[in-house]
Amino acid sequence: MASAVSSLNRSAGHAQRPLATRDSAWVRYTLTAVALGFLALFLALPLVAVFAEALRRGVGAYFAALNDPDGMHALRLTLLTAAIAVPANLVFGVAAAWAIAKFTFPGKSLLITLIDLPFAVSPVISGLIYVLLFGAQGWYGHYLAAENPWFPAFQAWLIEQDIKIIFAVPGIVLATIFVTFPFVARELIPLMQQQGNDEEYAAITLGASGWKTFWKVTLPNIKWGLFYGVILCNARAMGEFGAVSVVSGHIRGETNTLPLHVEILYNEYQFVGAFAAASILALLALVTLVLKSVVEWAHARRRA
Amino acid sequence: MSRSHRSVIPGFGLSLGLTVTYLSLIVLLPLSAAFIKTAGMTWEHFWDTVASPRVVASYRISFLASFAAALVNCVFGLVVAWVLVRYPFPGRRVVDALVDLPFALPTAVAGIALTALYAPNGWIGSLFEPYGIKIAFTEIGVFIALTFIGLPFVVRTLQPIIEELEPEFEEASASLGANRWQTIRRVIFPQLLPALLTGFAMAFARALGEYGSVVFISGNMPMRTEITPLLIITKLEQYDYAGATAIAVVMLIASFSLLLVINLLQKWSRRHAAV
Fold it and tell me: With an 8 Å Cβ cutoff, are A35 and B76 in contact?
């Protein structure tokens, strides 16, 4: 699935084409106009609409809407969630890529497929499975009436210890980790496979320890791929809506992430507030796109 | 890598152990919960849930809108990928970066932005309003949101393939007297077909599960614009765990089958490219 998420492992560049394989000028202009028109309608216009709607009642109203304690709390929770989910998946991604790229073992292609699995699962189901796992717990009667679905002993223990996972921050973090699970691994596995093991052999034969080899030889080689994976992982972690929506319980000032806060404001017809919060997320998305392009550029230059 | 290399590079046990443990705890154990939960239902109960008219109506809209969106993305995605690779124009890099917007923009933000645009009083919705065409809160709205979400899949799958097309084939075709259209149809398109199908399957799979961008624009009318993921949430809010899980299992089976199809398509695509 994720191989469609753009990847660093892609070449770029246009050679001057010979005349026979060049399209005629009117074909070029028509196709370019169709492509740009489609992108303007489907991509640029929604982006512009976010800012236009946020600023509809003026700059003053925009900043007044941003200065909202619930919104600030939602932003902090979103940053906290990303701050836990991204490093967790980063460590996993490096470990998985190391195991898959450096060694041969039975079941390797199955492992690669399983790592991809979260991309094939609907976000709503990604939240649901955690509700099933941790069971009927929660505040304000959310899901409390439901029967204990699975692992009754484990779930009874959680209730006894007063550990809240669903409708609390741990559930939000877990669901986010699930949906962003493959990003770093997906980027690193092909990169490390392509680079081979020669440099690591050399380092180890010359007496470097395993960790030293990793820090001094492997890491510098994969740093752009790693950074790229982290950017994509972080963007999804901060923007995830469906999965978090199922496990969060939408408790204002407690379990609302920024995307959920946008939904609540929108459903309350506070459009300026909703689009103001959305504009923060849209800015983060633009930063993501810029960073991504910078990494692609740096990577292409290094290879050239 | 031969067996003897295994002892040279250290960390096999640590890295594979960490990978398998983390994968099991985060992905496999929670996913199996859905199947185990469903196994506790009787077959009649399961069937009554997943084949009830409202649920079947949701499969219908989810399937049809996703299919239409993926199809439209194939047509325009092909044009976009072709233009981005073959025709240099000022600002090409910015446009290329923008293609990833649906990956980077949170789905909820996309959802409210599209709703604002296509609502009867929105920039685009107001253009159609005089003709009595409603876009937001109808099936067309669902289709628009799913088109937005799926676009990068087709473009990003096609781009590397178009970049690697050997110009020699096109030259040979031209020198043998084919006109440009014949070359495109008989030489270029067959080489792009596997990637195009892969992109279609990916956009379709993503659209089937999509939630955030659709719920705002769809209006969520039962039997008409209520998509399957939304129905799962509705069941959960009614404390109907078993019902929600049964529908989820149907969706999981559909997405895993699609994942299998995508993997086969990619194998075919790679073999095709290697020839």
Answer: yes
Using an 8 Å Cβ cutoff, are A123 and A237 in contact? no
A24 with A138, same domain: the answer is no
Question: Which pLDDT score, from 0 to 100, does residue A14 have?
Answer: 47
Judging contacts by C-beta atoms under 8 Å, the chain A residues touching residue B240 are 146
Question: DSSP letters of B155-194?
Answer: HHHHHHHHHT--HHHHHHHHHTT--HHHHIIIIIHHHHHH
Same domain for A133 and A269, yes or no, is: yes
Residue A30 is assigned to a structural domain of this protein? yes
**C-alpha span between B187 and B168 (Å, rounded):** 11
- Both A201 and A265 in one domain: the answer is yes
Is residue A163 a part of any domain in this protein?
yes
Contact flag A27-B180 (C-beta cutoff 8 Å): yes
Q: Is the dihedral of CA B219, B221, B224, B228 positive or negative?
A: positive
Residues 6+ apart with CB under 8 A from A100: A108, A111, A112, A189, A192, A193, B19
Range of the domain at A107: 58-303
B window 39-68, beta carbon within 8 A of A: none
> Cβ of B157 and A4 within 8 Å?
yes
| Residue A8 is assigned to a structural domain of this protein | no
Q: How many CB atoms lie within 10 A of CB A148?
A: 16
Q: Are residues B127 and B218 in the same domain?
A: yes
Is residue A264 within 8 A of residue A252, CB to CB? The reply is: yes
Report the amino acid identity of residue B39: A
- In this structure, are B26 and B91 located in the same domain? no
Tell me, what DSSP letter sits at residue B107? H
Does B3 share its domain with B112? no
Contacts of B34 (CB under 8 A, 6+ apart): A125, A128, A129, A132, B245, B248, B249, B252
User: 0.95 cut: is pTM over it?
Assistant: no
Q: Are residues A105 and A141 in the same domain?
A: yes
Note whether residue A1 is domain-resident: no
Structure tokens at B58: 């949701």
Tell whether the torsion through CA atoms of B64, B211, A116 and A186 is positive or negative.
positive
d(CA B52, CA B48) in angstroms, rounded, equals: 6
pLDDT at residue number A139: 41
Which of the residues B20, B27, B171 would you substitute to probe the A interface, choosing the one with the greatest number of A C-beta atoms within 10 Å? B27
pLDDT averaged per 10 residues, chain B (length 275): 59 93 94 84 90 95 96 96 92 93 95 95 92 91 96 94 86 84 86 92 94 92 92 88 91 92 84 65
Q: Are B246 and A159 in contact (CB under 8 A)?
A: no
CA angle B53, B55, B58 (to 5 degrees): 110
Q: Are residues A162 and A225 in the same domain?
A: yes
Same domain, B57 and B35: no
Count of structural domains, chain A: 2
Cα separation of the two ends of chain B: 26
| ipTM (interface predicted TM) | 0.90
Q: Which domain holds residue B9?
A: 1-39
Regarding whether B189 and B259 lie in a shared domain, the answer is: yes
What is the Cα A303 distance to its own chain's centre? 26
Query: Do both B106 and B17 map to the same domain?
Result: no
Same domain, A70 and A49: no
Q: Report whether A253 contacts A139 (CB < 8 A).
A: no
Would the CB atoms of A263 and B108 count as touching at under 8 Å? yes
